[in-house]
Each structure stands twice: as structure tokens, then as C-alpha cells.
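We store sequence with structure; for instance:
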Amino acid sequence: MTIAPPSDQLAADASGRRRPVRRNGRTVGRTPIGYAFVSLYALLTLAFGVVPALYAVVLAFTNADGGFAGIGNFTKVIGDFRFWPAVLHVTVYLVIWLIALVVFVVGLALLVHAVRVRWMSTALRFVYYLPGALAGASSVLLWLFVLDPTASPVSGLLKAFGFDSFVAVIQPGHLPVIFAIIAFWTGAGGWIVIMYGALNNISTEVIEAARVDGANAVQIALQIQLPLLRKWVAYMGVMSLAGGTQLFVEPQLLSQASNAVVPNDYSLNQLAYQYAFQQNDFNGAAAISLLLLVVALLLSWVFVTRGGLFEKE
């Protein structure tokens, strides 16, 4: 998100264009160091984002010999018996995860913001952020112990639900919920901190005026804070979709740990991996990656338009 500079930092010249102005003896506006930082980011994005994406486009529309294949690679992967189950798995996982993020992240952020004791609020934010400090693979390895009733610190809870073994816990029907819980535990804390910062940007005069008018905490949250968090919720949705559609590490590690109780083609990313490195079909893998990209972009467009992410206030 870009933050507009204060109006007195830029002045308009005769042509209507804005130009840097001087304040306290120094120029305020664009500087060479700013261009240096942006150019480094642009180069990395070009090298590790744009170029690989363009290469994937080339692979997706060509065959193994380099000839033009049209939509042949797409029809091949869509017709694969493993494709639609993988789509269903990722879809169910995304629905559970996104609902959990919107409900619990926003709710917990409001709760932390409502805490008036400074040290307690700081401590809660720190605790929420801790799980996100673990790398994705490390987090899944930790959850391998949590999901094993013989070693889990919550073994009593697992056994109360009728799970007496690790294999019983990770049955395919349970996996969308398990992956959503792992993803939420890993990433929700950082989003809570971000939402907390957004809540701090809401004018205190607006909140006080609502209290003077007789609004209670629930009314303030529903009628003032939540509408003003709409863009941040949309931003969270876009970023979560970008990560959620790339589900790979969690099912891959669980598949290895469970001796293939969890299939190695559970998600679309795993299926693309199978195409590329098991079947030596990089063209099919590229087709799956492009399908994922298109779907993620369309869903992100829905969040952007419905959330008014780029609307000017």
C-alpha cells in the first residue's frame, strides 16, 4: 500500500505537474536512493517473477519438441483423473482458511486493540506473531508431533474425538481442515499485527464521537472499525489467495511422513511437481501453473473490486 505524502511536501508547477519542494534547507520528494531501492526490487521481480512466468507461458503452449501445441497441454492436464480431485482439495482448503482468517483475525485484532493495558496489548501481539517466525517446513514438522496422539501435547483432545493413531488423524477427508489449521496458526499472527496497526490509524475523534452518541463497543466495531478495515481485509484476501493456491509443503511432508496415506498428488502444485519431475513433462506442469495463475488472478480481482483496495478516499 502506498502512503501519499503530506500536501505540503509536493508543489504543483505551472503545467500542473507536481515537483519537489524544499523544507528546512533540504529537498523533499524523489531522491536517487529511492530509485536505487526500487530498481533493485524491479530487477529481482524481473529475474525471479516475470521471466519464469513468461517461460512457463512458452512451455504451456509448446510440446516436448518445441513445436506449437495450442491448448493441447491444458486439455491433457484437465483430462487427467488426478486434476479435479486436486482442484476440490485446494478449493475446500481455501474456503475454510479464508473464512477463518476473516473471522478470527479481525476478531482477535479488535480484541487486542480493545485491551487498554499497554504491556498486555504488546505481549499479545508478540505471542500472536511468534508462530509466523517459523519457516513453513519447520511448522509442518512441529505439527507432525501435534497430530500424533502418542506424542501430542493435546493427545487427550485428539483421543476425545476418536483419533488413536497418526494415520487416523490424517485421513484424506480431514486434510482440508488440518491444512487450514496449520496455515492459520502459521500466518494469522502476522495479519493480526497488521490489522492492529490499521485499527490504530482510525481517528480517535471518530471513535470518541461515536461514544458520545451512545455507541457501545460492539456498535463501534460493527459500524465504524469494520467498514474502515475493508481494504485491509481485501489485501489479506489477495495475499492469502496467492499463498493458498500454492499448497505444497504441508501435503508433501505429510505424504512422506505417513508412507503415502496422504497422496503425493493431493494439491495442484503437487500434481505439477509429479508432471515435471516424475513424468518428465514440463509442458504439462507449466499448463497447471498457468491455470493456477489465472484462477488466483480472477479471485484476487474479486477481492480488489469488492474491497475497494485501490479506491481513493
Summary: The chain is about 65% helix and 5% strand. Residues 1-15 have pLDDT under 50 and may be disordered.
